[in-house]
Amino acid sequence: MKSVAAVLGSATLASAIAIAQPAAQDTHVKPLPSHAHPAFNDLDRNADGRLSFLEAKQDERLKSAFYRMDLDLDGFLSPEELRRFRA
Prior knowledge:
There is one protein chain. The protein is mostly helical. It is 54% helix and 5% strand. The protein has a domain at 35-87: Recoverin, domain 1. The chain contains five helices and two strands, in the order H-H-E-H-H-E-H. The chain has a two-stranded antiparallel sheet with strand order 1-2. The longest helix has 19 residues, at 2-20. The relative contact order is 0.12.
């Protein structure tokens, strides 16, 4: 009887922990179509839809302005941040 109570208690605890966990967010950003901004896609070596400093430093202009262009300060340049800077 104690083992049944222990199993039920464990199951209840596991359920409570699962409910308390925040839902996983999809942080993957879709890359631009190749015709939209070919230079961005050429620099985006891992095709994650954003440029890290290591990727951006391939272009001298992006290298020098990277941290000014990173408007949300996440350490990456999104296609939108690049568009805003060029506008």
